[in-house]
Specification:
By secondary structure, this protein is mainly α. Helices cover about 60% and strands about 10% of the residues. α4 packs across α5.
Length: about 100
């Protein structure tokens, strides 16, 4: 499992490594990538930095450690590593449409 700020590169690196992801975002595109992670169920819903607490972080980490989430992360990693740029673009478009 990884926990980070939610930048595009960091998010992609964690997901390509098949790691469930917990994002604590600050600004810019970080909430967007946090919402993608949650939408695809490969990690916990994103946490705004201003709302961060130890209880919320523990809750997010517990979410990430569920077998279902770990399996989703592994499945997505297989796709990302095979079709990295196409899938990353798809996730971006998918969120914009829905």
């Amino acid at each position: 499992m990884v926990c980070h700020h939610g930048g595009a590169g960091t998010t992609a690196t964690g997901l390509r490594a098949a790691r469930p992801t917990s994002i604590v975002f600050f600004f810019a595109d970080q909430p967007f990538w946090g919402s993608i992670v949650a939408l695809k169920d490969v990690g916990a819903p994103p946490i705004p930095f201003g709302a961060l607490s130890s209880a919320r972080l523990v809750e997010a980490w517990r979410y990430c450690l569920q077998d279902r989430v770990k399996e989703n992360a592994k499945a997505l990693a297989k796709l990302l590593n095979r079709y990295f740029f196409a899938i990353f673009f798809y996730l971006f478009i998918d969120l914009l449409i829905y």
